[in-house]
Design brief:
Low-confidence stretches: 1-8, 277-301
Largest sheet: 5 strands, antiparallel
Structural class: alpha+beta
Distance between the termini: 88 Å
Order of helices and strands: HHHHHHEEEEHEEHEEH
Helix content: 40-55%
Radius of gyration: 34 Å
Shape: elongated
Amino acid sequence: MTPLLVAAQCPDSTKGPLQWVCTLIADRGLPVELGQALQNLLQAVVIFAVVLVVGRFLRRVTLRAAQRTSLDVQLRTLVSNVFTIATLVVAVLAALTAAGLSISVLLTFGGLSSLAIGLAFQDLLRNILAGIFLLIERPFRIGDWITVGDQSGSVQTIQLRTTALRTGDGKLAILPNLAAFSGTVVNSSAYDVRQFSVAVRLAPGADLEAAMRRVREVVERTEGVVKEPKPFAQPRLDADGGVTLIARYWVEYRRHDPDALSAALVTALYEALGPWPALADAPPGTAAGGTPAAGEAPAAG
């Protein structure tokens, strides 16, 4: 009679494929409550594992399909992150439900927990939301050279919370996504054409207008300099009373080496404007006093 009595008690609250756990515990003379608790715990573990495996499988299938369609790397990262978070949330909720907790209790507990977590981890949540918007809006992509605040570098990764940059001297800079989302971002790789410049010191008493015209002609006919926007020469009065011409031009930097083009321009400008008496014995590309004539950093376009 005992097995029949236990069998009548267990199914009322332990219906499911793992009902045998409760029955087995009760058949051994142990309390039915213990059998119910073990059955619920085992059900929660099994459900959690199944949802986790299915979620990972779906994520892999989705990412492989995205790769075949040449989906952007950033969007693949976003899809992967969303799948990971959604899988964990669904797995936890399903496990708690399988353990015997009601949906209303879960919703109440989830609401209170969300409020507490939101208050305790405001910055973390703001960075996660900023990371999602960065991955969707794509103000910059992996491989772009950007400047955020006082940090400049090539974008290595865009995660949900942080963005990693490789700086010009080979260091790793980790930025919170909120800094890139709410601050000013300068993307030097957004366009195929960027502005660069070289500087040439004029000889004392040189004809400024003729020199500017000559500089424009030399820059315009240099291979690698784009026709539009047109290059231009800008005079600058130095502290010692001399005049320096700054030639600004635009280059498709993905096709041409800006450094090699700057070197060719300095040599061509030296041949076109000099040598002057003060530079007769100086090497090409140097200004009066032996200082380099093309020492200006390129201006980003």
